[in-house]
Design a protein that fits this description.
This protein is mainly alpha-helical. Helix content is about 65%, strand content about 0%.
């Protein structure tokens, strides 16, 4: 899985990062979260890759991604060049991650 983090396919990197984040040691989790955050920018990586990466972060849970919350908050939330049906997906995923972080902070 660690080799897959360097795969030319962004989708493969997202899936590998999610698996490492779930089942790896602390270093694997950090590398996985870094990879997922780096692929979460819809303007750089496209809406589908960004959605895959953000869903991966969501599945890892607020505790594992808390340290990158500032980076997540700075992600672009929409791209007006996208089809109107796709414009809100990334923004909703970012909002969900932020809500989870807020709920975890309240506990």
């Amino acid at each position: 899985l660690q080799q897959a983090l360097e795969d030319p396919s962004k989708s493969v990197r997202c899936i590998a990062a999610e698996a490492l984040g779930k089942y790896g040691d602390q270093q694997d989790v950090e590398n996985a979260v870094d990879t997922l955050v780096s692929l979460s920018n819809l303007n750089q990586d496209g809406v589908y890759v960004a959605m895959l990466a953000l869903n991966g972060l969501d599945k890892l849970g607020s505790q594992k991604v808390a340290w990158v919350q500032d980076q997540i908050a700075r992600l672009p939330l929409k791209n007006d060049q996208l089809d109107r049906r796709l414009q809100s997906y990334v923004g909703r995923l970012v909002e969900r991650l932020q809500e989870q972080q807020d709920q975890a902070a309240e506990k």
